[in-house]
């Protein structure tokens, strides 16, 4: 490696390093990320009366008397 190539490599690495440091410093000095918005309030609690227990199932009454045996 010649002296010119060594100097060019050093200059290249130095400029890339300085650019990376500048980006990092700019990012650190930037405004912080704002916090997320607050959660919406929970829905209001609404009182509802208890529903009565359903009556046990009973078969419906027959609509007409049974036919006489014929």
Walkthrough of the structure:
With 70 residues, the chain is an all-alpha fold. Helices cover 39% and strands 0% of the residues. The protein has one helix and no strands. It has one helix at 3-29. The protein starts with a helix and ends in a 41-residue tail after the last helix. Residues 32-70 have a biased composition (Pro residues).
Write the layout of secondary structure elements.
Blueprint: H1 3-29
- Tell me the Rg in angstroms: 43 Å
Report the strand count. Answer: 0
Name the helix and strand elements from N-terminus to C-terminus, one letter apiece. H
The class by helix and strand makeup works out as mainly alpha
- Gap from first CA to last CA: 123 Å
| Fraction in beta strands | under 5%
Helix content: 25-40%
3D shape: rod-shaped
Number of helices: 1
Region (Disordered): 26-70
Protein name: Tat pathway signal sequence domain protein
Signal peptide: 1-20
Biased composition (Pro residues): 32-70
What are the defining features of this structure?
70 residues, mainly alpha
